[in-house]
Amino acid sequence: MRQIPAGGEGIITLKFNTNGYGGRRVRESARIKTNDANRPWLDIAVTGLVENFAEINPPHLSLRGPVGAPLKAGVIIEPKEKYPFKITGSRARQGEYFKFELTEQMQAGRLQYVLAVETMRQAKGRYADIIYLDTDSPIKPRIQVPIVVYVYEQKKTQKE
């Protein structure tokens, strides 16, 4: 703990991880201990809007369907003009139950990446994974795309 002498000046730096907060307003606070008997603690807060590094639509994938049905979905990743980047690699945390393909395309003169995901699991159940996309950006060297899959038994109708 660093001390600032009475009547002195100092700089207090408040840092927090904004990963996953792009496009949202955040508020973080800190409590400072003082030697003032009337005010032994001073609370400070920092609020602000975290800029999006990229447009990721949707931000996570949810694949849901009956056993045997092909479950496919896609995510579009578009770098913001202010924060250009290239995706340099991709991998799944586990990758046991799905396959994915990443392609690059131009849409209205802007670079986009399309992440196509297809489940390979044919058994009933729920599972989750993450696809990691490595970038050449020092600001955000990795983008994470969470995936949740729910495969269920199809209910039989009375006619069957």
Radius of gyration: 23 Å
Number of strands: 10
User: Could you spell the SSE succession in H and E letters?
Assistant: EEEEEEEEEE
**Net shape:** elongated
Strand content: over 45%
What is CATH's topology name of the largest domain? Immunoglobulin-like
Could you tell me the mean pLDDT?
A: 88
Kindly list the characteristics that best describe this protein.
single chain, 160 residues, mainly beta, Immunoglobulin-like, 2 domains, four-stranded antiparallel beta sheet, four-stranded mixed beta sheet, elongated
Blueprint (SSEs and pairs):
Blueprint: E1 25-33, E2 41-49, E3 54-57, E4 61-66, E5 72-79, E6 87-92, E7 98-107, E8 110-119, E9 125-135, E10 142-152
Parallel strand pairs: 4-10
Antiparallel strand pairs: 1-2, 3-5, 5-8, 6-9, 7-8, 9-10
Give a structural overview.
This protein has 160 residues and is an all-beta fold. The protein folds into 2 domains: 1-51, no CATH class; 54-152, Immunoglobulin-like. Helices cover 0% and strands 52% of the residues. The chain contains no helices and 10 strands. The chain has strands at 25-33, 41-49, 54-57, 61-66, 72-79, 87-92, 98-107, 110-119, 125-135, 142-152. A 4-stranded antiparallel beta sheet has the order 3-5-8-7, with no helix packed on it. It has a 4-stranded mixed beta sheet with strand order 4-10-9-6, with no helix packed on it. A two-stranded antiparallel ribbon has the order 1-2. β1 and β2 form a beta hairpin. The chain starts with 24 loop residues before the first strand and ends in an 8-residue tail after the last strand.
